[in-house]
Specification:
2 copies of one chain form a homodimer.
Chain A (H helix, E strand, L loop, with lengths): L3 E5 L3 H11 L4 E5 L5 H15 L14 E4 L2 H5 L4 E4 L5 H14 L5 E4 L6 H4 L7 E5 L8 E5 L2 H13 L3 E4 L9 H17 L5 H16 L5 H8 L3 H9 L18 H15 L4 H20 L5 H10 L11 E6 L13 H18 L4 H5 L2 E12 L8 E10 L4 E10 L4 E13 L4 E2 L4 H14 L17
Parallel strand pairs in A: 1-2, 1-4, 2-3, 4-5, 5-6, 7-8
Antiparallel strand pairs in A: 6-7, 9-11, 10-13, 11-12, 12-13, 13-14
Chain lengths: 474, 474
Amino acid sequence: MTHKAAIIGGGVIGGGWAARFLLNGWDVAVFDPDPEARRKIDEVLANARRALPALYDKVLPAEGRLTFHGDLVETVAGAAWVQESVPERLELKHKVHGQITRAADAGAVIGSSTSGFKPSELTAEGAKVIVAHPFNPVYLLPLVELVGAPTLCDRAATLLREIGMHPLTIRKEIDAHIADRLLEAVWRESLWLVKDGIATTEEIDEAIRMGFGLRWAQMGLFETYRIAGGEAGMKHFMEQFGPALEWPWTKLMDVPAFTPELVDLIAGQSDAQSGHMSIRELERLRDDNLVGMMRALRKSGSGAGGTINAHEAGLPDPEPLDLPVTVDRVIPQSWTDYNGHMNETHYVEVSCQATDRFMEMIGADAAYVASGGSYFTVENHVRYLAEMLAGDRVTVTTQVLDGRGKKMHLFHRLTKADGTLAATVETLLLHVDIKTRRSAPPSEAVAAQLSRFAEAHADLPKPKGVGLAVGQRG
Amino acid sequence: MTHKAAIIGGGVIGGGWAARFLLNGWDVAVFDPDPEARRKIDEVLANARRALPALYDKVLPAEGRLTFHGDLVETVAGAAWVQESVPERLELKHKVHGQITRAADAGAVIGSSTSGFKPSELTAEGAKVIVAHPFNPVYLLPLVELVGAPTLCDRAATLLREIGMHPLTIRKEIDAHIADRLLEAVWRESLWLVKDGIATTEEIDEAIRMGFGLRWAQMGLFETYRIAGGEAGMKHFMEQFGPALEWPWTKLMDVPAFTPELVDLIAGQSDAQSGHMSIRELERLRDDNLVGMMRALRKSGSGAGGTINAHEAGLPDPEPLDLPVTVDRVIPQSWTDYNGHMNETHYVEVSCQATDRFMEMIGADAAYVASGGSYFTVENHVRYLAEMLAGDRVTVTTQVLDGRGKKMHLFHRLTKADGTLAATVETLLLHVDIKTRRSAPPSEAVAAQLSRFAEAHADLPKPKGVGLAVGQRG
């Protein structure tokens, strides 16, 4: 059954929530009196549609239905999740939370995107709300800080995992939760550095992204310092660097006066740094960088890479047709090249994913490889028939040409969503013993399952393109 | 001419400097009275050798010579760069800097890795030193903070760029420079959060790496907030969030007492978080994540990706043999798969790099593509002949089989450093008009240069493997 989410307040954060739910197959109802709300959410959605599917090697569920409402009661009716993202004024939050609590289903999660208020403040007038604090862009970054009643947080965590997010339930409430306290500390110190003329906004950004920012994106603070402690460990690190706490390395006991001059100084430097790009261009650059880095983290499963891997494992495999469908996915931006289309390399990457999936289907899966058997590719013949662009959906069908003995001879057809045949890949694999790295027969179980496919495909016509050398016409 | 670097103090930081210089072709002389110094530097070097070359699609210069010395004067003789990384005690730094200044060449850069001391403190006794503060792992992270005499910093910046680093010259000296001030702010706040039981070390790491850590790795703080300000810009962001400076979102006006109980609490939580992995395993995980993310950033050229792109552009292209050598590179970890070897996809990626390089050699380069012409691959036939492993060096030679009209028919041989033929790729491309996406003749200049190669290769024997269909033996 399709879930429904209600989005109360549709700015950058509310729009990000809407996109995250929609692209994971939820219906989304939006309430926002701003006449610009629909345009703003459409812009966030356009960004999300080009970025979120690119994190995955399967397709996400079909997009849910997006509706806009002028009535809060109608908006929240039947919603399993209601997310409030209105401005940070406590009396406004109280009013909205009261209305939502009265109108929402008894079992609904009511989350507030507040970055500053604690649950004890939000629930002071009896609302059933918890803090569910996300990070921009909400459709890409996994983190959601949950604070509030444990049973509500548990229910929220389950639903967040279903939409590919990483819930972090905080043990005790505190102003600004966790991440924003750390951000605030860096923000204050950075304002001092600019105000005192030590560094410009651009220089501070370089000091972050050329160094510790790269460390933090994959391990955070403590695990990084554990490594810095080396063989002697964390205790050694603490003892070595602990005394620095007493040194005058920060101005943070003091807050810079927030004058118009400081605002102009920062805004002017930011214009000099980034003013050559529009906000939309910056957003797309950010998203492409995030997608590229998060895809890179999938290799080790660290941090966000692990979140994506876990989410993808729960996505359904493609439904088999006459021929098994072995891939159904979207082309990420990072796969395109200077010709503006998917590079030849990634046609083979998709073909390889099809082979891997087919291997799983005949029982030559990860456990089988761990037990010592696998298939190695010995030859590929790729015919590039149509261009593919970033965002294109591609499905692959796999036909078995030969499955006798150690051989697995397959024919993959890569087809675009409009039915265009984009490529064919004729691929020949040999079964090997992983220890000796030499060819060897597959297990009886794998041989039997491969034969079953080979027999089922035996009467199919020989595909156009099979058995040809480069440049030969069929 | 080979440069020489002298490394004074060979711990994790000194060893990282040694590796960065060595792998960029510098000779490195090490002075460290610690009898373990050689073992420690060898371990850092082993990590660096598996990670740094994997950032590039060309090979780095041949490794320099590493020597260990018991005498400081001998160590620094003839060095263009002397880097001091001894413990953070000012009287020790003064003593070592004095010795170096007297012994070093007049033109040498003398850098101190100090994270805390200012140039005015370091030079109080007349030493010619500047601050050159790097970040662990020094062989991967580009950032070096330079503080001190402008002419010395300028000379240092030039040399650092040559070894692929990003020098950031700081306008005015300040305790702890820039990055460590920001790190210190987060460290203090994090200690409070653990001490007060709000979060464990692992939860704080998740709050960082699942959210803002990913943002900071590619844009830093201010550009991220510029985006958060949306269409209204940085000034709007400041005005909206500035007042939060007055809120009680931080404990930073106060420093947690550094008691044995706090040390045990942190060290115990860190063991629970990461104790299942050794420091070496954590280092390799970190390095693989960094390489993957930094390679991903090369696509956009943001941050560290831009630094690598600029460095690689200055590396020499392979020397032509009888056949042009079109690729000379090392296989990164991220290209391997569950079979423990380079995945079939990346044989095609290497082949594509060879085609791209050959296109440059005949004048079909980036400027040519921008002017409207390019080649699209229409067919590939890949014979996978030998496994390749992470760290393997591979060279590719390219033979022209046909270069008439719109056709470019090439044969790439991928060869490992030990001479093993790892794969052949027969590839057929057609020249296209980029605007119409249809085949069209190349420019006269490109046609002429392609013909020149085709004629030179016309008398070569037909390579084994050409003109075969999948499964056919030649």
